[in-house]
């Protein structure tokens, strides 16, 4: 006789393993006739824009645009000017996903290289990292239920485990319009050279089926001034908040990513005659909501009238932490070819992140523009590693941002300190076998008349469940007898046979 158990389920999303794709994009550009020849590359900055993502039977296709600004020192080594390149790119994740799959994409620039082909022409190669998270509708077992009437009666061992389920996947486009005023006492900007925007989610609060997402946007600007000297750098900060419908009433943690889809900047004059930066940022908010679910299932079943054979099924219960932020700090020392008189500009950006064993490592790309003691301008490009001190097991890194840079020149050496933030999240799972049904061998009944009605045993560290199963009893019956006798007597246990 076969008995199949019923399941009470809960609607959720199944999260696929996150694939990663890298693509290299190359472009060439010619210096405009109005600009001086290229002498040395000072810095290369790239902002990546997400243009589209599409799920099909062939996988997930992503398109984007690279906005690269190259700062270079002119041949006479006295000025710094800029050159802009824009290039479209596309990439595909060739995986088979259900057509109702929802895809979230994170794009990062992990490396940018530039080569001078001749004094009027330059080639740039950008490496883009795309991290994909896919979700499709699924059902999770909340409770396994044994049939109320099963002949003969069955005893089941129930176990409760907590799982973290994805119960909401959503996205929303939004636009941020902001005017930033340049501070007094600094040279007024005349030309924008490079800009990059970074959205950082700091808090997500669930209100009913909606989530209130709050954070900051960091806008790094590099610009020329009227004196024609080295470009100035400035960081603007602005708060933002968005309300998005997650479709989920419960949320214990949420993971969010904001991708820039368009950016427009313009220098403007305020009413008071001051200079300001008008910024219009188009972005896509991608949010994943998670809830906690108790999963109650049978891990063992037996009957006392005839042998039983359990039907087991493997179950994986996900364990996911909230997205967290780790601060990394480190001292750096860089050797340079010429003696440094003054550090003029520092351009820093994350270029790689990984786990070395269990320790997080963030590689920072540094472009340093400095003035030599002889008065000419020079630049150096280096990579510096920042290492965390605490191990991160079963974790996924999402990159990060540079928080602080401080470098000064001492002859042929640049010394200083770097600080960065690294975003990470712990992912894991617990495996167990659950009983989904039993087969009763009714043609081989136990010889009830030959079994003792009461058995006295000396349990040697055995669980009550195992004793009840071996001696054709039940946990409830054993406890009832011991209570009637006033508790256990020493190391002996009286086990009654179930009628």
Give a description of the structure.
- There is one protein chain.
- The chain has 499 residues and is mainly beta.
- Among the domains are: 324-430, no CATH class; 448-499, Membrane-bound Lytic Murein Transglycosylase D, Chain A (Roll).
- The chain is 3% helix and 73% strand.
- It is built from two helices and 21 strands.
- It has helices at 464-470, 475-484, and strands at residues 2-4, 6-15, 20-30, 38-56, 59-74, 80-93, 102-118, 121-145, 154-181, 189-207, 210-225, 232-245, 253-269, 275-303, 308-320, 324-356, 359-372, 377-387, 395-440, 454-457, 493-496.
- The strands form six sheets. Strands 1, 15, 16, 17, 18 and 19 form a six-stranded antiparallel sheet that branches. Strands 2, 3, 7 and 8 form a four-stranded antiparallel sheet that branches.
- The longest helix is centred in the C-terminal third of the chain and has 10 residues, at 475-484.
- The chain is elongated and about 110 Å long.
- The two termini are 21 Å apart.
- The mean pLDDT is 89.
């Amino acid at each position: 006789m076969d008995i199949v158990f019923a399941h009470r389920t809960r609607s959720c999303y199944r999260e696929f393993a996150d694939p990663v794709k890298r693509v290299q994009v190359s472009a060439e550009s010619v210096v405009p006739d109005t600009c001086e020849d290229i002498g040395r590359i000072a810095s290369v900055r790239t902002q990546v824009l997400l243009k589209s993502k599409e799920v099909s039977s062939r996988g997930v296709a992503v398109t984007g645009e690279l906005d690269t600004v190259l700062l270079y020192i002119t041949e006479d080594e006295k000025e710094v000017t800029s050159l802009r390149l824009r290039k479209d790119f596309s990439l595909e994740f060739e995986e088979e996903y259900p057509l109702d799959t929802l895809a979230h994409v994170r794009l990062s620039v992990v490396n940018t290289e530039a080569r001078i082909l001749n004094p009027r022409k330059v080639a740039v190669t950008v490496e883009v990292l795309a991290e994909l998270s896919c979700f499709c509708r699924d059902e999770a077992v909340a409770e396994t239920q044994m049939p109320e009437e099963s002949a003969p009666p069955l005893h089941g061992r129930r176990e409760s485990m907590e799982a973290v389920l994805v119960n909401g996947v959503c996205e929303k486009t939004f636009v941020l319009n902001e005017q930033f005023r340049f501070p007094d006492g600094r040279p007024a900007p005349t030309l924008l050279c490079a800009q990059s925007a970074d959205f950082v989610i700091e808090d997500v609060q669930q209100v009913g089926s909606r989530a209130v997402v709050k954070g900051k946007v960091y806008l790094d600007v590099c610009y020329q001034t009227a004196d024609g000297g080295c470009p100035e750098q400035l960081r603007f900060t602005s708060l933002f908040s968005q309300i998005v419908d997650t479709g989920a009433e419960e949320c214990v943690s949420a993971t969010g990513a904001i991708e820039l889809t368009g950016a427009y900047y313009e220098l403007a004059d305020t009413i008071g005659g001051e200079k300001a930066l008008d910024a219009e940022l188009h972005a896509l908010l991608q949010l994943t909501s998670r809830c906690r679910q108790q999963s109650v299932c049978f891990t063992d079943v037996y009957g006392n009238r005839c042998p039983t054979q359990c039907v087991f099924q493997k179950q994986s219960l996900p364990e996911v932490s909230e997205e967290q932020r780790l601060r990394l700090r480190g001292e750096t020392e860089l050797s340079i070819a010429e003696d440094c008189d003054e550090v003029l500009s520092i351009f820093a950006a994350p270029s790689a992140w990984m786990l070395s064993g269990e320790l997080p490592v963030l590689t920072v790309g540094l472009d340093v523009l400095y003035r030599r003691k002889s008065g000419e301008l020079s630049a150096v490009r280096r990579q510096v590693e920042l290492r965390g001190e605490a191990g991160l097991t079963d974790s996924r890194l999402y990159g990060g941002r540079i928080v602080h840079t401080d470098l000064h020149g001492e002859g042929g050496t640049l010394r200083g300190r770097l600080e960065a933030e690294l975003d990470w999240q712990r992912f894991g799972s617990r495996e167990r076998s659950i009983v989904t049904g039993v087969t009763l061998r009714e043609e081989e009944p136990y010889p009830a008349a030959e079994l003792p009605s009461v058995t006295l045993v000396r349990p040697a560290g055995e669980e009550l469940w195992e004793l009840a199963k071996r001696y054709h009893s039940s946990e409830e019956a054993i406890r009832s007898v011991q209570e009637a006798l006033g508790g256990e007597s020493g190391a002996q246990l009286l086990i009654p046979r179930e009628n």
